[in-house]
Specification:
Elements lengths: L4 H20 L7 H10 L3 H7 L3 H14 L10 H27 L3 H14 L15 H18 L1
């Protein structure tokens, strides 16, 4: 199954956030294959549907991931803890965006682009520039940097 790097981050975040809780559930618990199925049919279903992934292949991929990372099954997060984990990722994304902004304003466009790429690998669903505001896509920020860099190159 072909998963691009950004979607790989999304998938692993979902697995790591939900698998332990499902594993501990009395109706599912103790079975990595059942956890893989429930993660695939539940939290991953929307992403899988949007990407057109075959759910059986995705379920096999999740099962293999759980086999390679059994510690994920040992950690069960509450809803609040999952929200805190997501917010922590967003904060790291904001930090990368701030650093990218500094590089951008210093004229270091390559560094700004690299930092935006790094931010996307932590918070793949977008950059929360202002807490509580809608996410800004990383690609829109890269387009801005590339546009200004191209203008600067023409002028320079």
């Amino acid at each position: 199954m072909d998963i691009d790097p950004v979607d790989l981050v999304r998938v692993t975040h979902i697995i790591e956030d939900h698998a332990g809780r499902l594993y501990a559930h009395p109706m599912i618990g103790g079975s990595a294959s059942s956890v893989a199925r429930y993660v695939t049919e539940g939290p991953l279903s929307g992403l899988g549907d949007r990407r057109g992934w075959d759910w059986r292949e995705l379920c096999d991929w999740v099962y293999a991931y759980l086999g390679e990372h059994p510690e994920v099954l040992a950690t069960s997060f509450t809803e609040r803890e999952m929200e805190e984990r997501q917010e922590a990722r967003r904060q790291v994304g904001r930090d990368f965006e701030r650093q990218a902004s500094e590089a951008f304003h210093a004229g270091d466009f390559g560094r700004a682009l690299d930092l935006l790429d790094e931010g996307e690998m932590v918070a793949p669903d977008g950059c929360p520039q202002i807490p509580g505001a809608p996410l800004v896509t990383w690609e829109s920020l890269r387009e801005l940097v590339r546009g200004v860099a191209a203008s600067a190159a023409k002028a320079g």
